[in-house]
């Protein structure tokens, strides 16, 4: 039995806490909001259903105290939006500054999350951060059903995992693969960064369906109903730019439909076809998920500044043009009346020099 501190009271945090508790691990679930944990406390656990089974997962510790959550933890798993990284890094810095501080897993890491989080920890006074692992997507497709329940529609397969520094991967692998046996280790965190699922999956639909979301309050199936030929075309062009950026950094990554199928998020046939439209239409775990109720959504506030902006910056550093990516950043900023380019992760905020070999050396 391992002791895992799961930080985050949203969809992913509840899914991870329930799933890992059901597997017999000792989970300390942290949320900064007492209301988020109230029903779970009253019930004595988190009710869960879906592909992971059905029942009441008895979570060992439900707490609003970060120090209590980390007490005895062998792993600190962040299941929070990237918008929460800065605040959590400041709060975690003194707790992780010990020489034997537990490693961190960003589940997911977005585009460069481990790099950004390490820099934030250092700025907050943690001079020697522990190893930070990251996934390219959340290990669950899930939604909370009220405050005390979670429905898990997929235990995502073959999720890519990298560690910063890469030299620490061997130390973390036995623990992480025990919880998620299908994890696929990759060379370094630039691979997971440029395999960020949500950065390709969410922005095209959000920008092109903005009027529909505002008019209907999001009362439609986001991935299925908004997965039209136009959205699929923008997604395909966006993915070509992602692959071009990856190639400039010396990486050969699979096209998005193939990646999506390998994760178990669409049919193998759709993945092999290369069709983004078919990929969306045949995504069984996602087909009933509703659109956000409004445009004040992590699909914009997270997936643009911490998804597309760093991808664009990685391209710009090596002279790779990303016009579709940049157009989505500009339009999303206009829709939200925010400057996502200014808010987002630049290479400087990731702690990466703009020269390829120097940047790659940071990852190792």
UniProtKB/TrEMBL annotation:
Keywords: Oxidoreductase. It comes from the Bacteria. One of its GO terms (biological process) is glycerol-3-phosphate catabolic process. The keyword Oxidoreductase applies. Residues 4-98 form the Glycerol-3-phosphate dehydrogenase NAD-dependent N-terminal domain. GO terms for molecular function: NAD binding; oxidoreductase activity, acting on the CH-OH group of donors, NAD or NADP as acceptor. The keyword Oxidoreductase applies. Residues 186-334 form the Opine dehydrogenase domain. It holds the Pfam family Octopine_DH. This is Uncharacterized protein.
């Amino acid at each position: 039995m391992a002791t895992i501190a799961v930080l985050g009271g949203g969809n992913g945090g509840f899914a991870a806490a329930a799933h890992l508790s059901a597997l017999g691990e000792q989970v300390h679930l942290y949320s900064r909001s007492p209301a988020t944990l109230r029903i779970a406390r009253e019930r004595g656990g988190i009710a869960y259903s879906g592909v992971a089974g059905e029942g009441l997962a008895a979570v060992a510790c439900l707490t609003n105290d970060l120090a209590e959550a980390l007490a005895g933890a062998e792993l600190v798993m962040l299941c929070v939006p990237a918008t929460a990284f800065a605040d959590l890094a400041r709060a975690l810095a003194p707790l992780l500054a010990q020489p034997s501080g537990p490693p961190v897993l960003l589940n997911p890491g977005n585009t460069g999350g481990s790099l950004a989080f390490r820099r934030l920890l250092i700025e907050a006074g943690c001079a020697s951060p522990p190893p930070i692992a990251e996934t390219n997507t959340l290990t669950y497709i899930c939604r909370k059903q009220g405050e005390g329940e979670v429905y898990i529609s997929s235990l995502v397969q073959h999720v890519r995992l990298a560690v910063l520094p890469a030299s620490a991967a061997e130390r973390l692998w036995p623990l992480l693969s025990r919880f998620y046996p299908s994890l696929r280790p990759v060379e370094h965190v630039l691979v997971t960064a440029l395999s960020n699922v949500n950065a390709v999956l969410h922005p095209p639909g959000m920008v092109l369906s903005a009027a529909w979301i505002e008019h209907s309050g999001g009362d439609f199936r986001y991935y299925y109903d908004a997965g039209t030929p136009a959205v699929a075309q923008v997604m395909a062009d966006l993915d070509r730019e992602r692959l071009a950026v990856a190639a400039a950094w010396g990486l050969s990554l699979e096209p998005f439909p193939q990646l999506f199928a390998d994760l178990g998020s669409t049919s193998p046939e759709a993945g092999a076809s290369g069709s983004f439209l078919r990929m969306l239409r045949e995504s069984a775990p996602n087909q009933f998920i509703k659109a956000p109720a409004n445009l004040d959504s992590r699909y914009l506030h997270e997936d643009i500044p911490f998804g597309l902006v760093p991808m664009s910056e990685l391209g710009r550093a090596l002279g790779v043009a990303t016009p579709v990516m940049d157009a989505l950043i500009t339009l999303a900023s206009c829709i939200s009346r925010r400057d996502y380019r200014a808010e987002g992760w630049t290479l400087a905020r990731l702690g990466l020099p703009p020269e390829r070999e120097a940047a790659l050396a940071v990852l190792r």
